Amino acid sequence: MHSLTQLLYKSPLFVSALLGGIIFTSCASAPLNYSGSSLPPTSADRIANEAAPVAEPANGGSQDAKAPSAPRSRPQLIKKAAMTVIVNSVDQSIDAVSQILTKQQGDLIGLKEQQPRNDNSRHTALIQLRVPQNQLEPTLEELAKLGTVENRNITAEDVGDRLVDFQARLTNLRKTEANLQKIMDRAGSVKDILSVAQQLSNVRESIEQIDGQLKNLQNQVAYSTITLNLEAAVSSSSPQRALGSQIQETWNNSTSSVGAFTVALLKLGIWLIAYTPYLLILAAATYSFIRWRQTHSLR
After folding, report:
1. 20, 123, 184, 260: which could join 232 in a potential S-S bond, CB 3.0 to 4.6 Å?
2. Rounded-to-integer distance, Cα 128 and Cα 110, Å
3. What are 70-88's pLDDT values in tens digits?
4. φ, ψ for residue 125 (rounded to 5)?
5. Membrane-spanning regions, if any (predicted)?
């Protein structure tokens, strides 16, 4: 039996069959190079596959699936406030607002002032301010000291999810940009270089857009806006005027009225002088008609 086994191992046919079986088994168990496709991938597919960042497991892999969730971060709020204050002097209040802004390290965004057009209207001013978010409450307290607060409201919008989304998209796009740059550095053909350059330009344009939106949101979170409406106070009863002022006003009105009446009489005289010929003709015709009636009535 032992001699038979040695004979088989020494046989060339047996050795060939054994090597063929090993090679066949290795080929059958090896993975396909082109994802199960019978044809090699195109240049565009190869560039996209190489540039795309590797996606990480959503839960950190099977071993981290039961890991406790991270604590929720501090809310990212966009705060806006509006306030209406009744003041004694709008001009002085505007100067006080400028001093408050300097103290709170804020900025003046807009100012719209409206002067009173008649006795029934009031002097008003609409001011838009921007202050650091942590200085919002102290600034509102300082503005409330300008006069009597008629109304006040504060609104807040949480944009934390949007910030996280923008940051994640920006990170992935920058990874893609780096991968495309590496591919472009080692690309051989002109076609591949042009394809990579086009994709790189699109990725950088997306990066600029998202980065701008992200910075805009961060700026709105860092600074709060205040819309301040200042209105001049109006007393319930008009103050009693001095006697001399009333007499002077009456004299002025009376002399003005006499002057206007005199001018009206002069104008009327000028009109009468201009129409005198027509008036004389009309008077003569009337006199003649009356005489004719009297003569015929006597007969």
Report:
1. 123
2. 5
3. 455 678 889 999 999 999 9
4. -150, 130
5. 268-290
pTM above 0.70, yes or no: no
Which residue has 């015709």 as its token pair?
Answer: 285
Confidence of residue 266 (pLDDT cuts 50, 70, 90): confident
Three-class SS state of 82: strand
The pair of structure tokens assigned to 31 is: 């993975």
| Of 190 and 25, the one with more pLDDT | 190
Question: Which residues, in sequence order, are CB contacts of 210 under 8 Å at separation 6+?
Answer: 166, 169, 170, 173
Helix (H) or strand (E) holding 177: helix 160-186
Taking the C-alpha atoms of residue 123 and residue 129, their distance in angstroms, rounded to an integer, is: 20
- CATH topology for the 77-159+225-232 domain: Alpha-Beta Plaits (3.30.70)
Give the CA distances from residue 150 to residues 86, 135, 229, in Å, rounded to whole numbers and listed in that order: 7, 22, 10
Q: Which residues contact 109 (CB under 8 A, 6 or more apart)?
A: 128, 129, 130, 225
> What digits encode the pLDDT tens for the residues 131-189?
999 999 999 999 999 999 999 999 999 988 899 999 999 999 999 989 888 888 886 77
- In sequence order, the β-bridge partners of residue 132 are 223
- Cβ proximity of 82 and 153 under 8 Å: yes
Query: Helix, strand, coil: what percent of the chain each, to 5?
Result: 60, 15, 25
Residue 79 near residue 154 (C-beta atoms within 8 A): yes
Measured CA to CA, the distance from residue 196 to residue 187 in angstroms comes to 9
45 token code pair: 């597919």
